[in-house]
Specification:
Elements lengths: L3 E5 L5 E7 L4 E2 L3 E5 L2 H14 L1 E3 L2 E3 L1 H15 L5 H13 L17 H8 L6 H8 L6 H18 L9 H12 L5 H20 L16 H4 L8 H7 L7 H13 L3 H5 L10 E4 L2 E3 L3 E3 L7 E4 L2 H13 L23 H14 L4 H7 L5 H11 L4 H8 L4 H8 L4 H15 L4
Antiparallel strand pairs: 1-2, 2-3, 2-4, 5-6, 7-10, 8-9
Length: about 425
């Protein structure tokens, strides 16, 4: 095998590469500063015998190759303490020294800084990796996760990401429990860190994942049951006059289709069929139009009076854009729907008008999403569970059960009547 190779670059100057037998590759090209091949060969032969000039001294070609070996090994995380010692000794022979102590660990980062950067939608390698593999991850989700990092900051302070132990994480879980937060909320707070540690471990950034073995909180035990309107209350709310027609129709759609508020706000004129409503998008304030929850589009039966109400709203949209692209629940800008607060405040105002005060609403835990529970409960009385699951767009029967598992005053009345009929004479 030849000990070196000469080649000429476009400017005419001849360069040399020495053969690195250990790494089976050539060293970085070095200029001979000659344009004549014979003179270049003379320079290289001098370097082979007396060493390459380096800052007024001569560095042996063999030593140069050794350093390149060390650099190549270090880039592959294959360098050890003996290699570092050899390199240090060689540098000292030329009057140089390693001014900083060599560390076995990488430069550490504060836990809070690491988590904040990890959930930065625009720069996070984790997010970029998700997007590259066609996974749906939104700006709102990342923004919510950044907010939850504040709980980690409160407990861990300036602790480094690499120094967090499983024992310390268990103490963090107990501290979160003491805050009387809902189980689902605590699970999301923990997820902000668990995801970062899992990704770091899978990508060989850390040697162990301290989150392995941690359990999820029992969210069902602390979850507050969602309040559901009675049928009489639902009928009454549409007999009154609403201040904003868009808020009224939004509740009408939610009651008769079970759509989530984001899905309702995302509806456009092209989503209205003859007797179907096509659920193609969900609206997020940070992401705009995106796929519906669970990533699946669906179609639902559309009652004639609801269809007419939707068509009437489209006619009120005066933005100069193609008809099919117009938002049904239009806002002040052509490319954005109504703000969610107008829908929520309109719903609360309607509840007040039928006698459900704000205090009662909060006590009963009635929110706009309650319409979805109302729809699921009502529908489940008429069709089987699979059909209810299809209408709600759930991926699992367990989630559907959560939405239809509401007892109503009507249910209790029917049960009471049945018990009286069966056991009344024996009591």
């Amino acid at each position: 095998m030849r000990p070196f190779y000469l080649f000429r670059r476009e400017n005419g100057v001849i360069y040399v590469q020495f053969q690195n037998e250990a790494m089976h590759r050539r060293t970085t090209a070095k200029s001979t500063h000659e344009t004549n091949m014979a003179r270049a060969m003379t320079v290289v032969c001098d370097w082979m015998q007396n060493g390459i000039p380096v800052k007024g001294k001569r560095q042996a070609v063999a030593s140069s190759v050794a350093i390149n070996n060390l650099i190549a090994l270090a880039s592959k995380n294959q360098i050890d303490a003996d290699d570092v010692a050899r390199l240090s000794g060689f540098l000292e022979s030329f009057g140089y020294g390693l001014t900083n102590q060599v560390r076995d660990e990488r430069e550490k980062v504060r836990l809070v800084d690491h988590l904040t950067a990890f959930w930065d939608y625009d720069t996070s390698p984790y997010v970029l990796d998700k997007v590259a593999h066609d996974y749906d991850i939104g700006k709102r989700h990342c923004s919510d996760m950044v907010k939850r990092v504040s709980y980690w900051k409160e407990f861990f302070g300036d602790v480094f990401f690499e120094d967090v132990t499983t024992e310390r994480l268990r103490e963090f879980e107990i501290a979160l429990k003491a805050k009387n937060l809902a189980g689902a909320t605590r699970n999301y707070i923990m997820l902000a860190g668990k995801t970062a540690y899992k990704w770091a471990f899978e990508n060989k950034k850390i040697k162990e994942n301290p989150c392995v073995g941690l359990k999820r909180y029992n969210a069902k035990k602390t979850a507050k049951d969602r309040g559901v309107l009675t049928m009489d209350e639902a009928k009454a709310i549409f007999k009154i006059t609403w201040d904003d027609e868009r808020a009224r129709v939004a509740s009408l759609v939610a009651m008769t289709t079970g759509l989530r508020q984001g899905e309702i706000r995302a509806l456009r004129a092209c989503d209205i069929g003859e007797d179907r409503l096509y659920v193609r998008h969900n609206w997020e304030n940070t992401d705009g139009l995106k796929s519906p929850k669970n990533g699946h589009t669906r179609e639902l039966p559309l009652l004639p009076n609801v269809r007419d109400a939707l068509k009437a709203l489209v006619l009120q949209n005066k933005h100069e854009i193609p008809e099919a692209d117009k938002f049904i629940f239009w806002g002040s800008l052509p490319d954005k729907p109504i703000v969610e607060n107008l829908i929520l405040e309109g719903f609360k105002d309607a509840l007040e008008k039928i006698g459900i005060t704000e205090e009662v609403r909060v006590t009963r835990n009635i929110v706009f999403h309650s319409w979805r529970h109302f729809f699921g409960t009502t529908l489940s009385m008429q069709v089987n569970e699979r059909q209810t699951q299809l209408a709600l767009g759930h991926m699992t029967a367990a989630m559907t059960k959560h939405y239809i598992d509401h007892k109503t005053e009507e249910d209790l009345a029917v049960i009471s009547k049945a018990l009286d009929s069966a056991f009344g004479s024996a009591a």
